[in-house]
Write a structure and sequence with these properties.
single chain, mainly alpha, two-stranded antiparallel ribbon
C-alpha cells in the first residue's frame, strides 16, 4: 500500500481550500438573498450567479486541496477532460438546486429537493475529480466512508439552501458561509480518508497533466473570479435600494409651499 499524504504542502492547501469554499458559499448566499427579493430576469440572473459562485467555490476547494495530495512511490497526473467534466457537474447540479429553491412552488419540498440534488452533485463532482487522478497503482474506497461523505454533502447542501431562504443579515450570511465551508471541507477530507492506493512501481510515464500544469492555473483563475464577483456584489445596490424612489427635492428658498 502506498502512503497517502493529504497535506504535502503543509497547512497551505487545507487553509486555502477552506477559504475558497467559504468565499463561494458567502457569495452564493448573498446572490440567493438578492434573487429572492427580485422578480423576472433579475431573479434568474442572481440565481445563475449564485449557482456559479457556489459551484466554483466547491470545485476550487476540492482541487486546491488536491494540490497537497501525494502518494509515496508514484507520481500523480490528472485527466484533463474528466477534471473539466467535474467542474461542469458542480456548476450544473448546484444550479439545479438553487433554481429549485428560487422557483419551487413549495418552500419545504423545494428545499429538500434542492438539498438532495445539490448534495449528490457535490459528491459526484468529488468522485469524478478523483476518477481523473492517474497514478501507478490501483485506487480503492472504503464504502462506509464514501457513504458518510455523501451524507455530509447532502446535509451541508440542504443547510446552505435553508440559510439562503431564511438568512438576510450580512453577519448571519458570513457565519453560515463559514459553517458551509467547514462542511464542504469535511466532506472532501472524509472522502479522501476513504481512499487507499496499492502502488505498482513502473517506469512508464503517466498520462495527463500535472497539478501545477493544469489544476493550479485553473484554480487560480476560478479563485480570481470568486473574489472579483464578490467585490461586484458587495458594491452593487440591493434590489430594495435600486427600486426605492429618490427623495423629492425641496424648492429653492427653503420652506415647502
Amino acid at each position: 500500500m502506498g502512503h497517502l499524504d493529504h497535506a504535502t504542502l503543509g497547512w497551505l492547501t487545507p487553509v486555502l481550500s477552506y477559504a475558497m469554499a467559504c468565499t463561494g458559499a458567502a457569495l452564493g448566499l448573498r446572490c440567493t438573498v438578492r434573487a429572492l427579493a427580485a422578480t423576472g430576469r433579475a431573479r434568474r440572473n442572481w440565481l445563475v450567479t449564485a449557482a456559479s459562485a457556489i459551484g466554483t467555490g466547491i470545485w476550487t476547494m476540492h482541487f486546491v486541496a488536491m494540490l497537497g495530495f501525494g502518494v509515496s512511490g508514484t507520481g500523480i497526473r490528472y485527466d484533463v477532460p474528466l477534471t473539466l467534466a467535474s467542474l461542469f457537474v458542480a456548476m450544473a447540479v448546484v444550479c439545479a438546486g438553487v433554481f429549485a429553491v428560487g422557483h419551487g412552488p413549495g418552500r419545504g419540498r423545494a428545499l429538500l429537493l434542492g438539498g438532495l440534488t445539490t448534495g449528490l452533485g457535490v459528491a459526484s463532482m468529488h468522485y469524478l475529480g478523483m476518477a481523473a487522478v492517474r497514478l501507478h497503482g490501483d485506487v480503492s474506497y472504503d464504502p462506509v466512508l464514501v457513504g458518510l461523505s455523501v451524507l455530509i454533502a447532502v446535509v451541508a447542501a440542504t443547510a446552505a439552501l435553508w440559510a439562503a431562504l431564511n438568512i438576510e443579515s450580512p453577519v448571519a450570511v458570513t457565519l453560515a458561509s463559514l459553517l458551509m465551508g467547514a462542511a464542504v471541507s469535511s466532506m472532501h477530507y472524509t472522502g479522501m480518508l476513504a481512499v487507499s492506493v496499492r502502488v505498482t512501481p513502473s517506469g512508464e510515464e503517466l498520462p495527463g497533466a500535472t497539478a501545477m500544469q493544469f489544476v493550479f492555473p485553473l484554480a487560480v483563475g476560478l479563485g480570481s473570479y470568486l473574489f472579483i464577483t464578490s467585490a461586484f456584489v458587495a458594491l452593487s445596490p440591493a434590489t430594495q435600494e435600486r427600486g426605492r424612489p429618490a427623495p423629492a427635492r425641496r424648492p429653492a428658498g427653503g420652506a415647502a409651499q
